[in-house]
What we know:
- 29% of the residues lie in helices and 26% in strands.
- The protein is of the alpha/beta class.
- The protein has a single domain, classed as Vaccinia Virus protein VP39 (Rossmann fold), CATH 3.40.50.150.
Amino acid sequence: MIDSYKHKGMRKILVNELREKGISNERVLEAFYNVPRHFFLDRIFEKQAYSNMAFRIGANQTISHPYTVVFQTQLLEIKKGEKVLEIGTGSGFQTAVLCELGAKVFSIERQRELYLKAKPLLYKLGYKPTLKYGDGYKGWEVFAPFDKIIITCGAPYIPEDLIKQLKVGGKMVIPVGEGEEQEMVFIVKKDENGECDIYNKGVFKFVPMLKNIEK
Length: 215
Ligand code: SAH
């Protein structure tokens, strides 16, 4: 795997595009710049890896648009050392961006094929997230509570277990909606009872958050 000057140059142009589209957190843009997105895509997409597009990554799933990745990441205001739970490892690209921000990342993927692909790739690139093949609706109780939670698939509703596993004062970003489009919902947990402030942050498109583990 080669990350050439050409790849870096294309990445720089894409980062400028993201800045123009309103992403202003330079730490997030730098983290995005540091991850070679073409490593996370099939070779046939290598040339297009640095356009603002989603791509198929196998098992009928897609890697999120660059804008969506930085938009969700920016909302979470991640600080070094924070515990972040990600639902939907997919290609592992978003996981890598979270690691670049210095977070302790825990990520769950329900397609075994994708989990088995993302794990060695992330480790080869030097990232050290904790990964599992499992059902994101349940969160990851043993490592809870989390400072931040990011869901990268469209959820039909906000799973209660995820709210439970969020720290008081913690933030969560989750696309909610069962149709073609989802509302990006941003949540701040206010107290132990699970009382939350909820904000809508615009319309996005995600693959669905599915129930039942595939055997
Ligand atoms: N963050 C990923 C985006 C992948 S698309 C990336 O950067 O590439 C969303 C992913 O969520 C898919 O891989 C899909 O298999 C996964 N997913 C769907 N339902 C899930 C569930 N219930 N638990 C965990 N992952 C799920």
